[in-house]
Every structure is written in C-alpha cells, then in structure tokens.
Amino acid sequence: MLYNCVMRKLYSLILILIFLLNGFMLPLSAQEPLKGIVTEYDEYKQMESELFTGKVETLDRKDVIRMTVSQVLDSSFSVEGDEFFAEVTSDVYGDKGIIIPKGTVAHGRLDSTTEAARLGRSATLELSFDYLVTPDGREIPIEGRMSTKLHPVAEVGKIVAQDVGYTVAGGAVGGLVALNWLGLGAAIASQGYTLAGGAAVGGVVGLGASLIRKGNNVLIAPGDEIKVKISSPVDLPVYKEEALRQEEVLYDGLTVSINNIKHEKDPFGEANTITLTVLISNMSDKTLSGFDMSLVNDYNVKFSPSIFGNTRLMFKQIKPGDKLIEDVSFSVDNINRNFWLTFYDRKNGDVITKVSLDNAYRKLPNKVKKKNEKVRNSRAKKNYKKEDDFMDMDF
C-alpha cells in the first residue's frame, strides 16, 4: 500500500517535470525558426514591391522574343542535345509594361540538325528554349522555338531559282564556247545552230551542276539576332521601369542628357551606327571635349565618335558655364549590347560621368523605336548561311 502511494507520487512528479520542461523549452525552439521565416518572407515581399507594379501580363503565343546566342551554333559540328544560352536583346512589353527585360538569359537546347544536301538543300538547325533567368535572379519556365528551316514553298522556290541561274549561266557559257571554237562565220553559215547547240550543251552542264550542287551549312554566331516564337502562354509580373534602370555615374554640376537615339547604317550599308542627340549643361569645374568622350559597352569596350557623323562635338571645348545640344555618332561592333555614354578626366583618365543608353531608350517615343527596329531587321540574317572557309574548300 505504502509502495503504491510512493510510486503514484513519483509518477506525478515526473509528469509535472515533463510538463514544465515542455512549457519552457518548446516556445524557445519554436520561436527561432518562426522568426527566421518571417524575416525571409518580409525581405521577399519588400524585393517584390521594389521590382514589380503588382500587375500581371500574359506572354502569349503570338509573342516573339529577340535574342542573341552566347556561342557559335554550326550545322557542320553542333549535335542534337547541345545546350547553350542566349540573351534577350530587347525589352518585351505587354499592355501594362515590361514583362521580360533586356538582358534576361534564356537556356536553350539544339533539338535537331540536318546536313546540307544535294539539289541545293541547305542545312537546318532547330532550337528550343525551356526557361529564362531574369536580371533579378528569377527562373521562369517557358516553351519557345526557333528554326532556320524555310517554309517548304519558299525552300523549293529558292532552289528552283538557284538552279535556273545555274542552267542559264551554263547556257551562256556554252554559247560563248561554241562561238570561240567554231567562229562567227560558222555561226552565220549555220544560221545560228552552232550557237544553239553550244547553248544546249552548256545548259546540260549547268543542269548537271545544279543536280550535284550542295546546299549551305548554317551558322548562328554571337551578335546574330534570332527571333524565338513562344509556344505556350505564360503569366508574368510587370516590372517597374525604375527597377530596371542601369547604374550611372554623375558629377556635381555636370548634366548630360540623351534626348534621342537612332540606329543607322554606316556608309558601307552596315547597320552598326548609333547616333545620339546629347544635351550638355556644364556647371561644373571641368572642361570637356569630344576627345574625352566614348561609348562603352557592357564588356568595357570603348568606341570613339565616328568621323562619318556630325563631328562638331568632337572638336568642341565644353567649358564651365556652357550649354549645348548636338548629335554625335558611334560605330559599334554589336548594336544590341548595353552602352553608356562616358566622359573622362583628361588629366588622370578617371570617369567623370557615365549615362546609360538603356535608361534613355525606354523613355523614347514608340515611333522612334519602330524606326530603329526596322534598321535592326535589315541587319538581321535571314538564312544564316555559313560562308565557306577558303582553307576548307576541296580542290
């Protein structure tokens, strides 16, 4: 009896101790992870509010994303399954604002490749894209496709036109050979049959050349702009434009504004010129000139003002108190890269001011952007034909 009483008291004491321990320890163990979760959630919500407007747009099937690849894709050595990355070269807008900013990286894969074949059939590359990585680090699944293959009707028309060219050229050469071999007298005596016969032989030679002629290999290289078609709709948040602003360097008293940006062709017909309308108000302690000015891209490559454009700003001294507005042109290697208009201190070479073209471009009227797009389209490749290397030719 006494034993049972002692044991009951002992059990009660153990239960009380367990209860007290749980009461003191559980809140401590529960509070720390809860605090961490709340902090991470708050940070995420703050970042979200800084980046996005709170609106959502749909990237639709009709939408096309302009990109440039990061590595060479060549039908003569690239194989199915090869992975690569591409970079978005233009902001993608919805009705409510930007949904995919310039600089977004896309992951791609080479789905299929065909070799160049006889009858002038060119090689083809078919690419697919499965996700995007935005500048803020988000990974967005997409379905996108791009192919260098022409529509069957266009492909046949291209081959027929080329083969007719071969045959006609062959006929012309055959006629000239007959005239050289048999002479003008023989041609007159035979009432032109020798020329006709020579043309027929030349035509056969030309037709033979068209039958054995092989198509071109395909090459997509960094700097070539490709257009990727979206295969399925994706809902995306709309960015605040101020969240996408590129970093700039300012100097006290010096104001450099870019009022217009035009993409143009150089005198040789290449669309590689950027012409800026620049407003400068110099209330600083520095004297500037065009020789202290460069256009710098995101690889830190510098481009000096072009002699083919307006050169007034190049040779002008911009002294403290001066205000001016001038056009200045730059010939660049890739018009689709990010650029900053940069002025340097002529004494020590330090950067005085650095103004982003991307920041200025987003404020331009749509009319100007459409004109620039037309120039860029004229620069873009249509068939991605690979030029044969002289060293690789068979003799």
How would you describe this protein?
There is one protein chain. The chain is an alpha+beta fold. It folds into three domains: 56-148 and 218-239, Type IV secretion system, VirB10/TraB/TrbI (Lipocalin); 153-215, no CATH class; 245-379, Immunoglobulin-like. The protein contains five helices and 21 strands. The chain has helices at residues 2-51, 152-189, 193-212, 357-361, 366-379, and strands at 52-59, 64-69, 73-74, 83-88, 92-93, 98-100, 105-114, 124-133, 139-147, 219-220, 225-230, 234-239, 254-264, 273-282, 288-289, 293-297, 302-303, 317-318, 323-331, 339-344, 351-356. The protein has a six-stranded antiparallel β-barrel. A four-stranded antiparallel β-sheet has the order 17-16-20-21. Strand 5 and strand 6 form a beta hairpin. The radius of gyration is 34 Å and the shape is globular. Residues 23-31, 150-214 and 390-395 have low confidence and may be disordered.
Explain briefly what this protein structure is:
This protein has 5 helices and 21 strands.
